[in-house]
Specification:
The chain is an alpha+beta fold. It has two domains: about 10-170 and about 190-260, no CATH class; about 355-488, no CATH class. It has helices at about 40-60, 65-70, 75-80, 120-125, 140-155, 185-190, 310-315, 355-375, 380, 385-410, 415-435, 445-460, 470-475; strands at about 10-15, 20-25, 35, 110, 140, 175-180, 235-240, 245-250, 265, 275, 305, 325-335, 340-350. Strands 4, 5, 7 and 8 form a four-stranded antiparallel sheet that branches. A three-stranded antiparallel sheet has the order 2-1-3. Strand 12 and strand 13 (about 340-350) form a beta hairpin. The relative contact order is 0.10. The model has no long low-confidence stretch (mean pLDDT about 90).
Amino acid sequence: MPLNLITDAWIPVTRSDGGDRVIRPDQIAEPGVIFPDWPRADLNIACLELLIGLVFLADPPEDDIDWAERSADPARLRAKLAPFARAFDLLGEGPRFLQDLEALEGEASGPDMLFIDSAGGNTARNNADLMVRRGRYPALDLPMAAMALYTLQAHAPSGGAGNRTSMRGGGPMVTLVDSGRGRLWDLVWANVPEGRAADIDALPWMRDTVTSQKGAQIHPAAAHPAEAFFGMPRRLRLLGGDAVTGVIQKPWGTNYAGWVHPLTPAYRVKEGAELLPLHPRAGAFGYRNWLGVVVEMPGDEADLRRRSACLDSYERRVLPRDRAGASVIVAGWSMDNMKPRDFVWSRQPVLPEVDQKTLIAMIQSAEVFGGALRGALKGVAGEGSALDALREEFFVETQADFEIALAGLLRGRAVAADWVATMARVALAIFDRQALPGLDRRPPEAMERIIRARDGLRAVLAGWRKPGSDVFLRLGLEPAARAKGEAA
């Protein structure tokens, strides 16, 4: 049976009411529908983006008042989506969802190439697919193929000669507000931008692909804003009937320039430079990653690090007293160029009104102390990834204490001194675990170097020398008292 992504039920979901577990897009507005239920986290986050994009395409809020007054209405959503149905066939004659308008000729790859963590052609030929596996999906059922296709087009990494990344680069960070009401509609609606409904011809696969081999680019002014959700950086055609068994890919898909996606934070390398999409770091997403993602930056810094527009819109639309239970979903592939490292999925708080200056200073001070720890351990742990891992250990070991300090800050308590003491204790403990065992068996010059490094680290943590003294100043604290005769 052919699959139409508007008129057919194809999205697996969790429900609270025993209703259909596979639904059409309009059924997200039914009561009891909780969350997408794909077998992979990257498909779930991409499915949320797709649903947000469909509502933005067909029936966005006109303004904040419309957003606040609109309630879940399956019949309305179904009627608004219906005119777009002919653009959402996955296979068959005519336009195909997120695929080149005309058939492509060439050698077919297996359908597992639609997944970011599958081995590329060179990797498989060189038998280098130790962590990135080949051949896991010899065939895909049509719903899985549709979701994998969307995920690749939305998050596409570098893919070799001429194979474009997504308009947000490879593996962008996605941040979504979850209002905490436990209904899929509310999650989707919380993140839909304001705007005007598009026409079907705004979808890029309804026309010949704008290829990029001669340098052509698509800028926001030349397209409907909904193309942010339906970009086509990859030129693809799926092969199959009742299942997808192959994919033909051609290079030089559409090159997007100047787009700022409403669901992705952005940053500038320097003042006046273009905004670039943010990408997740490997490892746990914790408080150290909040600035410009969960926490809005102040003043001029806000232009260098911008939260996603959906989070700003939610805080504008919803009063602080009405945000109880809300959270920010942070997700995305952490990439090393073309290679996926791990998939980040985290929930972070939507913060009520808080002493923003102190909160930002707390996070920035941890970056300073974490960097000081890394520098002090250079002579012990070597260089590169080993030092980065130890710095990451510092953030992991201070995460729980940061949450305690944040809770105190939200209650109006003075928490800066306790936070500095916690960071100093953790940093020195990590240093001592790494550097002190076997110290008495080291050559004298090595012993002296380690002792100097510890003294220097302690001086920074106590605020006796830069950059530690800057931390104390920013937090409004006096440096720790020195013992008599103790050097800085």
